[in-house]
Inverse folding.
């Protein structure tokens, strides 16, 4: 393969390409999401004005957005699925081939894994879940008004029929699990690990994963989950345990949103995680990380010979 036509040549730092590509992908995805949301809000406003009824839009912007998300939930979720596969997968592959020209399947660690790896990875996230929720609650405890910001997001998570459950789980659980792991672990983390040692690669990719989601009030939660996903990617040397964890985490949040009556034991009267469960999750999660660490061998993701064999 003639490497001279690729960006990565003459010892150029691939991290630059990875950070630029990830930022480009997320910017494109965020632009489409914002554009669709605002266009739908404007359509609703115009329709309400024409009909002479503006009750739905007498509140603030987030109330209007929540109303729009409830009305067009199916359309927004369909656009979310399509844009994630188109941008997170196709655009990443396109830029990767143009900039790096390396074997994609091997680079992204799209390889078989065993059941025990999946089980250990899932065990860790089940313990980490109450800790992650508790971290996210810190902002709400300090600024209760932030609860209003949850309206649009929760509107997309609602599922009350079989078809709506299938769509929500696919759009919120399956699609991000595949597409975000492909981008953030398969590409970004993999590239960072070629220059950074462990654990710096998965700490750095976890922080970038959190920051680029632009959910700054949930930053601590995203950092925790992002670092854990990077950790299991490094330890199991396969993208699939992270896909399973990402799917389980998002799907559990969907289930908890729609079936809150099943989780009254987990939350106190104010709607916050009970501290004993958060403490138990912290202990259990730490033990699972130690178990994974001791039962796996860190594979040298930092590989400069790929370029020579491409």
């Amino acid at each position: 393969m003639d490497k001279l036509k690729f960006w990565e040549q003459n010892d150029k730092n691939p991290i630059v390409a990875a950070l630029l590509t990830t930022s480009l992908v997320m910017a494109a995805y965020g632009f489409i999401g914002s554009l669709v949301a605002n266009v739908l809000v404007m359509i609703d406003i115009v329709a309400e004005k024409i009909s002479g009824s503006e009750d739905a839009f007498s509140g603030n912007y987030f109330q209007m957005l929540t109303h729009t998300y409830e009305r067009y939930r199916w359309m927004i979720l369909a656009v979310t699925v399509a844009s994630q596969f188109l941008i997170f997968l196709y655009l990443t592959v396109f830029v990767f081939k143009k900039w790096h020209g390396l074997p994609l399947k091997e680079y992204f660690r799209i390889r078989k894994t065993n059941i025990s790896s999946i089980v250990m990875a899932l065990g860790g996230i089940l313990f980490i879940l109450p800790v992650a929720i508790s971290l996210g609650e810190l902002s709400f405890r300090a600024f209760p008004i932030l609860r209003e910001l949850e309206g649009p997001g929760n509107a997309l998570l609602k599922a009350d029929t079989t078809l709506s459950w299938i769509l929500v789980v696919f759009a919120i659980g399956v699609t991000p699990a595949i597409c975000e792991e492909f981008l953030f672990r398969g590409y970004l983390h993999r590239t960072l690990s070629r220059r950074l040692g462990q654990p710096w690669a998965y700490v750095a990719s976890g922080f970038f994963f959190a920051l680029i989601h632009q959910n700054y009030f949930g930053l601590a939660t995203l950092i925790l989950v992002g670092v854990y996903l990077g950790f299991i990617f490094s330890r199991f040397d396969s993208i699939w345990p992270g896909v399973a964890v990402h799917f389980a985490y998002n799907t559990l949040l969907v289930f908890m949103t729609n079936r809150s009556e099943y989780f009254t034991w987990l939350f106190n009267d104010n709607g916050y995680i009970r501290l004993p469960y958060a403490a138990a999750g912290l202990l259990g999660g730490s033990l699972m990380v130690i178990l994974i660490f001791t039962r796996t061998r860190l594979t040298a993701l930092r590989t400069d010979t790929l370029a020579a064999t491409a």
Confidence is low (pLDDT under 50) at residues 300-310. Residues 5 and 237 are 29 Å apart (CA to CA).
